[in-house]
């Protein structure tokens, strides 16, 4: 019996049959119990109890090591499985990407042996033309589709068609506001004070977007990329209030007259115009601009009116009171925006004394060109300028005081237009705009809707009433001291049916306006004449140093720029035809030229006078205001136009108190 037990122990130890660790462990526990109950028979088998225990302890250690090894193997097996799955996923993505690139390149580059084929996605149906049919009676193929073949970026198409929300265009709200052309000032530091309350609302419900799919666009608005940056400066010389208003109109161009002098109620315009009016200063305005986007209002599919603006329409429809219409104009302005350029602009406003300006001009220096060089020189060293240009810029800067107006991002110091464009795109702002008179909103184009019919809006009557209120609104501002005059600015004293002789320069122009502009460009030009009713398109210009004359001619129009006159402008053998004579406040008869000139100098409303040393003529001196004046030929009579600057200096000593209405009526 004992021998059988010993043999059992030996068999367990020497058995090579594969068993798991748990089975071996349980078997050894059983053997240990047998060993503890065994007798001396174990010695007969050749193995003592101590040897058996040592063998069991060794087996237990082997079992624990095997269990740890199995656990470690299972952990590494799971890690390997995860790595294999990840590698397969990355491999699939790479294969798909390479296939997409291959397809894109294949579609982009047509085979050399065949004509480029338009993909079916680019074929769009056209209305069927019944006159264009095949033999079977079916429409001919070309009547079914048209081919829209052109470059298209696949990623851009995916972005357009994707469900993601598009960013709204920055500062789009400006395009929906009204504008007061009397209170506006585009060169203001900060926002233009001309912008008023919103006329339109931004409606994004239709899901419109720009063609490049970058921005959401409200209903009734067209937004077009228009990237063009000009880092060089263009300069305008401003010597009169008319030139100042014209220069500002480059940024805010208003159509529809009758409102008064544009920008005249703004503080900036008043300050600048008062300085040019006194003849003390000349302004040179230098600009550089960077366009980014161009906006246009769709008038036949306009944005919806703002709810508060609709309330005003209903109120205007129910009243004829001037005060209500004036309040409406005060709240919503005189115009609405039809076109806006978004981007940035950089402007220098240089002020130079009139004496310095005359001195530079007499030296042959083009002050406007020097101002442009100064703009480049001030921005940074990246602009390419030669030594003479730098010298001209430096000399100019010593003679002027400068104000800087930045709208949007400033140009970079290196002068690179592309760098400026990349900066501007982050925050484009309205830099110039076209304006249409606000009464034009009250038309069938804008108000042919259910809302207007529901409330019975008589928009034609409202439009007429606003037209009648224009001058009343300007008069209200004049009474408040915000504007000086409500009459439209004229470039000079215009005389229809008058032709001048004795010009010093001539140039070809197509219109009277172009002729006026040419005269303003020449610092010595004080008058011009242009034929509007004949084939001669020449513009004739005149200067103060020359004695010239005038005659009546129905086809010609002449103009005098009185602020440019330094002393007296003399026209020999010329008389004035006008019903607006100025009365001479003197008990003594005026018989000398000096006395006649003195009376005109002391009368603030005297623009010109005539003097004739004719023995047979009793009245030798006659004064005239600017109103309704024309010139005719008369041998022996001389006409003199006064210098407003010299006149103001004289009026500083004494002046008549007669108003423009205190004039004697007559005709000579």
UniProtKB/TrEMBL annotation:
Domain of life where this protein originates: Eukaryota
TM regions (residue ranges): 76-104
Domain MACPF intervals: 156-473
Keyword Thylakoid tagged: no
InterPro entries according to UniProt: MACPF, MACPF_CS
Subcellular location: Membrane; Secreted
Taxonomic classification: Eukaryota, Metazoa, Spiralia, Lophotrochozoa, Mollusca
GO biological process terms on file: killing of cells of another organism
Keywords tagged on the record: Cytolysis, Disulfide bond, Membrane, Secreted, Transmembrane, Transmembrane helix
PROSITE patterns: MACPF_1, MACPF_2
Organism: Batillaria attramentaria
One GO cellular component term: extracellular region
Protein name: MACPF domain-containing protein
């Amino acid at each position: 019996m004992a021998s059988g037990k010993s043999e059992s122990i030996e068999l367990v130890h020497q058995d090579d049959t594969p068993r798991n660790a748990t089975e071996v462990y349980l078997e050894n526990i059983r053997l240990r119990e047998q060993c503890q109950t065994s007798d001396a028979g174990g010695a007969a088998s050749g193995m003592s109890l101590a040897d058996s225990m040592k063998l069991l302890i060794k087996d237990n250690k082997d079992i624990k090591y095997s269990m740890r090894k199995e656990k470690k193997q299972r952990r590494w097996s799971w890690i390997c499985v995860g790595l294999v799955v990840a590698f397969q996923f990355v491999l699939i993505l790479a294969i798909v990407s390479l296939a997409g690139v291959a397809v894109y390149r294949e579609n982009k580059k047509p085979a050399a042996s065949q004509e480029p084929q338009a993909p079916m996605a680019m074929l769009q149906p056209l209305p069927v033309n019944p006159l264009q049919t095949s033999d079977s009676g079916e429409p001919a193929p070309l009547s079914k589709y048209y081919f829209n073949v052109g470059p298209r970026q696949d990623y851009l198409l995916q972005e357009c068609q994707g469900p993601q929300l598009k960013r709204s265009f920055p500062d789009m709200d400006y395009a929906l506001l009204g504008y007061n052309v009397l209170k506006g000032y585009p060169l203001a530091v900060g926002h233009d004070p001309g912008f008023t309350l919103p006329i339109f609302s931004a409606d994004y419900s239709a899901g419109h977007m720009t063609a490049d799919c970058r921005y959401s666009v409200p209903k009734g608005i067209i937004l077009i990329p228009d990237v063009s940056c000009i880092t060089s400066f263009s300069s305008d010389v401003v010597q009169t209030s008319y030139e100042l208003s014209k220069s500002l109109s480059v940024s805010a161009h208003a159509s529809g007259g009758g409102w008064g002098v544009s920008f005249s109620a703004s503080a900036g315009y008043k300050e600048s115009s008062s300085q040019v009016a006194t003849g003390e200063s000349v302004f040179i305005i230098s600009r550089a601009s960077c366009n980014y986007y161009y906006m246009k209002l769709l008038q036949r599919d306009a944005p919806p009116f703002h709810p508060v603006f609709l309330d005003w329409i209903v109120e205007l429809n129910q009243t004829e009171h001037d005060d209500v219409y004036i309040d409406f104009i005060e709240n919503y302005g005189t115009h609405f925006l039809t076109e806006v350029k978004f981007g940035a602009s950089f402007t220098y406003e240089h002020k130079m004394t009139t004496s310095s300006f005359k001195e530079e001009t007499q030296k042959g220096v083009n002050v406007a060109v020097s101002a442009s060089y100064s703009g480049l020189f001030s921005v940074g060293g990246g602009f390419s300028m030669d030594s003479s240009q730098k010298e001209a810029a430096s000399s100019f800067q010593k003679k002027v005081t400068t104000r800087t107006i930045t709208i949007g991002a400033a140009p970079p110091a290196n002068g690179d237009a592309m760098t400026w464009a990349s900066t501007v795109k982050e925050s484009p702002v309205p830099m110039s705009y076209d304006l249409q008179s606000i009464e034009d909103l009250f038309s069938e184009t804008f108000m042919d809707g259910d809302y207007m019919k529901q409330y019975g809006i008589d928009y034609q009557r409202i439009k007429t009433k606003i037209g009648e209120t224009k001058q009343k609104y300007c008069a209200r501002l004049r009474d408040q001291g915000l504007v000086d005059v409500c009459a439209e600015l004229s470039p000079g004293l215009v005389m229809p049916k008058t032709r001048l002789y004795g010009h010093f320069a001539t140039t070809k122009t197509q219109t009277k306006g172009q002729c006026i502009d040419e005269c303003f460009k020449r610092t010595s030009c004080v008058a011009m004449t242009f034929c509007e009713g004949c084939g001669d398109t020449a513009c004739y210009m005149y200067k103060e140093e020359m004695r010239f004359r005038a005659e009546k001619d129905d086809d010609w129009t002449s103009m005098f720029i009185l602020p440019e006159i330094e002393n007296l402008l003399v026209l020999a053998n010329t008389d004035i035809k006008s019903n607006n004579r100025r009365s001479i406040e003197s008990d003594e008869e005026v018989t000398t030229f000096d006395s006649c000139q003195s009376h005109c100098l002391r009368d603030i409303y005297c623009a010109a006078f005539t003097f004739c040393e004719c023995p047979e003529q009793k009245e030798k001196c006659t004064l005239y205001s600017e109103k309704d004046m024309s010139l005719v030929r008369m041998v022996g009579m001389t006409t003199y136009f006064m210098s407003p600057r010299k006149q103001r200096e004289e009026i500083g000593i004494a002046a008549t108190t007669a108003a423009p209405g205190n004039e004697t009526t007559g005709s000579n």
